[in-house]
């Protein structure tokens, strides 16, 4: 079966309350381009749209030919599309500061003279910290709820998966922490003569954190609101990457919107006398298209041709809209 049953446009029509969409896939397959295209389309539907990049290696400014680093700016004629590259460094600095304050409070509380710095370093000097800062950034945007539609240009596969898997791990971790904090508090309250409720910023923080995580989890697993799209080329490696990815997402209960096949060489433009190099690439793509139909079948949402140049600027994005939402 080599036919698309539900196109991107049909999928969108069948999910009118969709609000958060994501693009995942191997590096270089066209995630940023598809995210930009989807955002432009959404703005053209009259929705106030935010195209946000949580990827530390930003490329929105390049795609849109406009600086959107660290600030949301209007990026199309409709005045309804905004783009925003999250300043990861700034977020990390702020998270570090927040953690420093909490650790300081705790050290004072526990009557310890140890310097907070050592703890702060060990708590923040790991890649997971950067990712969790980005995750919080993303959920902050979602909770602020200033737009009708959000398109996230997510980090390459492994990161994005960890990002989402994390909300589950977080929630388990926070539960454990909460339990021990609450036990400690009630014990102290029991032992103290004053009945005044103790202040506990650490516990308050954990509680609000758990709250936010639960809210994020419920938004991200709601298939009326959220969809993850996977972009691939008709090549073995990108196919393998998203096959694995889609299975993980099913495991996490995160809604899979479908697969976009990008970079297809248009056969009608390749004559019999075309160079061997081109004919070989076409043959290779055809083989991998078979594989794509076998694996993804009715989840294929769009077949995008390889353009004669890279995709950059409003005109090219508009052209891409016509292919992604045929
Ligand atoms: N259909 C296409 N035709 C021609 N160039 C494309 C197409 N899709 C993407 N590109 C180009 O391929 C490169 C990688 O795309 P990009 O969206 O940045 O990938 P990713 O975000 O997945 O790393 C960019 O230079 C982009 O302009
Ligand atoms: Mg990108």
Shape: elongated
Question: Which series of helices and strands comes N to C?
Answer: HEHEHEEHHHEHHEHEHEH
Task: Point out poorly predicted stretches.
Answer: none
Name of the top-level CATH class of the domain at 8-88 and 132-159 and 222-324: Alpha Beta
Structural class: alpha/beta
What's the total number of strands?
8
Q: Look at the structure and give the mean pLDDT.
A: 86
Estimate percent helicity. 55-70%
CATH homologous superfamily name of the domain at 8-88 and 132-159 and 222-324?
P-loop containing nucleotide triphosphate hydrolases
Hetero compounds: adenosine-5'-diphosphate, magnesium ion
Distance between the termini: 20 Å
Instruction: Supply the CATH architecture of the domain at 8-88 and 132-159 and 222-324.
Output: 3-Layer(aba) Sandwich
Number of distinct helices: 11
Rg, alpha carbons? 23 Å
CATH topology description of the domain at 8-88 and 132-159 and 222-324: Rossmann fold
Q: Strand order across the biggest sheet?
A: 3-4-2-5-1-6-7-8
